[in-house]
Amino acid sequence: MVRYAGGISRFIPLRRANKDSSTDWVLDKKELECLFNSKTKIIIVNTPHNPFGKVYKKEELAHVADLCKKWNVLCIVDEVYEWIVYEPNEHIRMATLPGMWERTITVGSIGKTFGVTGWKMGWAYGPANLMINLQMVHQNCIYTGVAPIQEAAAIAFEKAMTNLNQKNCVFKSTSKELIVKRNYMAKILCDAGMEPLIPEGGYFMIADWTPLESQVDLSSEKDKFKDYRFTKWMIKNVGLGAIPPSAFFSQEHKKQPKY
Q1: Residues in domain Aminotransferase class I/classII large (predicted)?
Q2: Domain span at residue 188?
């Protein structure tokens, strides 16, 4: 989409500072700063992060915000997992940081918020002068939303807001339900000999499978990247499906993951 608009995409990977959890993956500040210049128009930020499950800390977002303000850059922030954050972590909305509301478009998802991922509908909010352009693109590319799903989303929000201070409110209950499954999945992966990264948010978990590399024969799989070969081997021999993380990486960073 950026190329079609005449732009150039520049990518920065999360880099591993430590080993055990998604919080240990960070943006290198100097590397990020070097990507900003007078031609930079927009940065896209994803928190909680998919697939690592990293929840950006306030100081991390503040650094991005400072660069946006310094170089007059807009920020599109993907916060579709904002209601799936595990204690003691806290989701910080980029648009709430000083000077960021007027330059931020925030994206949400009914599928992630209410557990209906097959319903491909979401929302975006921001200042009127930015939203008018987004509405124009939406009108000419998609034309309209699906009215029955919009109605269902409105009802879901009304019920959630009615129960906002109750334990059964979906904004609170989802994380409490999923953290039990997260911990169970981590134990299964550890018992199998893998090294899981414990996510702070979202419902995906990344695991380093390479401790098992000597125990599996991937010679029958011909994909370029090893994580693709392993996931195909696992489907055929174990009956377990997974997503190769290199699918999430830009071309120049595809060799980085081993998960």
Answers
A1: 13-245
A2: 170-253
Last residue of a domain, one of 99, 127, 162: 162
Looking at residue 167, what is its pLDDT? 87
Per-position DSSP letters for the chain, written without gaps between them:
-TTTTT--------EESSSSBGGGEE--HHHHHHT--TT--EEEEESS-TTT-----HHHHHHHHHHHHHHT-EEEEE-TTTT-B-TT-----GGGSTTTGGGEEEEEEHHHHHT-TTS--EEEE--HHHHHHHHHHHHHHT----HHHHHHHHHHHHHHHHTTTSTT-HHHHHHHHHHHHHHHHHHHHHHTT-EEEB-SBSS--EEE-GGGGGG---TT---SSHHHHHHHHHHHHT------GGGGS-GGGTTS---
Q: Output the six-digit token pair for 91.
A: 């989701």
Q: Whose structure tokens read 């190769």?
A: 244
Write down which residue in 162, 190, 208 finishes a domain. Answer: 162
What CATH number should be reported for the domain holding residue 236? 3.90.1150.10
Closest alpha carbon to 63 in 35, 88, 38: 35
Asked whether residue 134 is domain-assigned, the answer is yes
**What is the spatial distance between Cα 60 and Cα 77, in angstroms, rounded to a whole number?**
14
Tokens of 115: 């557990």
- 76/188 same-domain check: no
**Bridge-partner residues for 42, per DSSP?**
74
pLDDT at 52: 92
